[in-house]
Design goal:
Layout: H1 2-13, H2 23-45, H3 59-66, H4 68-79
Length: about 110
């Protein structure tokens, strides 16, 4: 039963991810789902161990997923900067006066 539930959860993680606003967010979500997939794999391999301890993932496997993520996020932020809004507290630029036109009505 545990393996069946772990397989169902694993299939849920394998679904098409929702569209995200920024590539950095997609990288973070992919890293987290990869870590959860590893935990589910550990549960499926030894379901009886759930009675005695939490499912653990080896340090090497965790590092393999999580070490490249900060560099990938930094690259994504450099290539695709987050959109910024103007500061509402900043003073607005003074309006530009219209160009001066000679008065044609006096002629």
């Amino acid at each position: 039963m545990v393996r069946r539930l772990a397989d169902r959860a694993h299939a849920w993680f394998d679904r098409t991810p929702p569209p995200v606003l920024h590539p950095a967010i997609a990288i973070a979500l992919d890293t987290y789902t990869g870590l959860y997939r590893l935990r589910l794999r550990a549960v499926a391999e030894d379901p009886a161990a759930l009675l005695h301890r939490k499912p653990t993932v080896s340090r090497r496997a965790r590092l393999r997923l999580s070490l490249p993520a900060p560099a990938q996020v930094a690259l994504a932020c450099a290539l695709f900067p987050f959109p910024t809004r103007p500061d509402p507290a900043a003073p607005a630029a003074p309006p530009v006066p219209p160009p001066h036109r000679p008065d044609t009505a006096t002629r």
